[in-house]
Design brief:
globular, alpha/beta, 17 helices, seven-stranded parallel β-sheet, six-stranded parallel β-sheet
Length: about 450
């Protein structure tokens, strides 16, 4: 029986990550090479596991229990949106050191079922057996291989690359599906990436800029294939329209502009509080401009956890706490990614910080503006989509720039829609090419 495992894990609260895992599963399934395909679970408590994996399990995906817990152990301080307290950091660092020692030892003995069963729990031993029986590990698409020199960077990179190390320690094929890469700032970060990626059987970048950055580090060309989120198939039922109707929204008579925002700590920059305040103020000013221009503004939850920094609702509450207008709506729901994409498809335009919210919109032929954060993904993908003028870094955002961008987008709206339709046709050809390459590699 041929088995594949998708790592590093499913995160149902983040709809971009959820889409990447689901589309990775569909891609691997479409190779027709495997009898069983597993996804690694996430969550450090039973409640957190249900939140992070429940929608995927309801869809019928089979899970392997995680081997790598987060140092938080499910303890999230909802007040620490932009800054983490010294006490929290010390607790995280202490657990991270213990986890590093434990998991590094696991990597050393993982081939021996006897040793793993002796030193670790029954659940860990069972999960390692499942990895031992797998033929290929597929690293889901995404944008998590980057660091800005923050003090946690060495451990974070080790954490993100753990399952790749495990797969190679067990002698498995490992395929790194389309990701964004860089920057690689911080102690040991570039060294870790270079040493681990040298062992991979195949690696893809999801845009040309990341291919260039990783290629420079590795000293070899990196092939480019589109982000797997582009291939997400939206929910085809009437659920999205019914949901919009509950919020008194009718896309047939109203022009809806969707917005996603998120908390962001501006790693590596000295003034995160003022930058965050400027970001929220800029988006709010744009939203007020849109309302004054006759649009219905719709804030959406693209990610709602598991921690305060990953919960978009914290940023939305900050914008709306002193501003109430009948043309401003907040779809405060925990929607599966395919339903959320269907909601976005009914918008006239979209302004997204969460980049997969932009991807969901672009593939629904909705003209979009991207506020980029966290590596090269927004800048690179918008350039590859021939829309570089519609992206701006989160640290450089201003109300004036956003208003001018939207004015340009409005003028070119029909042209952009035609361009997006053409790009979406090409995307399906790109997926077919990727599928052929994977079949050849797997054999």
């Amino acid at each position: 029986m041929r088995t594949a495992i998708i790592v590093p894990g499913v995160t149902d609260l983040n709809k971009g990550d959820q889409a990447l895992v689901w589309e990775t599963h569909r891609l691997v399934q479409d190779t027709n090479c495997f009898d069983q395909i597993y996804i690694v679970s996430t969550g450090d408590t039973a409640q957190e596991r249900e939140l992070l994996c429940g929608q995927s399990e309801a869809k019928g995906y089979q899970l392997v229990e995680t081997l790598l817990k987060h140092p938080r152990r499910g303890n999230h301080n909802e007040a620490e949106v932009i800054h983490e307290s010294m006490g929290s950091f010390v607790r995280l660092a202490f657990r991270a050191v213990l986890d590093f020692c434990s998991q590094w030892f696991l990597l050393l003995i993982c081939k021996s079922d006897t040793l793993v069963s002796f030193f670790y729990s029954k659940q860990t031993a069972h999960s390692v057996r499942q990895f031992r029986s797998a033929e290929v590990l597929f690293v889901k698409g995404g944008g998590f291989i980057h660091a800005y020199g923050e003090k946690t960077a060495p451990y974070l990179m080790w954490f993100f690359l753990f399952y790749v190390r495990l797969g190679k320690a067990l002698g498995k094929k490992v395929v790194f599906l389309p990701n964004s890469y860089g920057p690689f700032q911080g102690f040991t970060v570039a060294k870790q990436v270079k040493s681990v990626f040298a062992t991979l059987d195949k690696v893809y970048a999801r845009e040309a800029l990341s291919a260039q950055k990783l290629g420079e580090l590795m000293g070899k060309p990196i092939p480019v294939s589109p982000d797997l989120g582009f291939y997400l198939q939206m929910d085809a039922s009437a659920t999205a329209l019914q949901l919009l109707a509950r919020y008194n929204l009718d896309p047939s008579t109203q022009k809806l502009v969707g917005i996603t925002i998120r908390p962001w700590r501006f790693p590596g920059l000295p003034n995160p509080e003022s930058l965050y305040a400027n970001y929220l103020q800029s988006v709010q000013t744009l939203a007020k401009h849109l309302v004054d221009s006759g649009y219905q503004v719709v804030f959406c939850n693209q990610s709602i956890g598991p921690n305060a920094h990953e919960d978009d609702r914290n940023a939305i509450r900050e914008i709306l706490k002193d501003w109430n207008h009948p043309a401003v709506h907040w779809i405060d729901e925990n929607l599966p990614c395919d339903v959320l994409k269907a909601v976005y498809s009914h918008f006239y335009a979209f302004v997204g910080t969460r980049f997969h919210s932009v991807i969901f919109s672009l593939t629904s032929c909705v003209p979009s503006i991207a506020i980029g954060y966290g590596g090269n993904k927004a800048k690179g993908i918008m350039a590859d989509f021939n829309m570089p003028e519609y992206t701006i870094p989160i640290e450089a955002v201003s109300a004036d720039k956003l208003v001018k961008m939207f004015a340009t987008l409005k003028i070119s709206h029909a042209q952009i829609q035609t361009q997006l339709a053409e790009q979406n046709e090409l995307l399906q050809l790109k997926r077919a090419e990727l599928l052929v390459e994977l079949k050849t590699l797997i054999g």
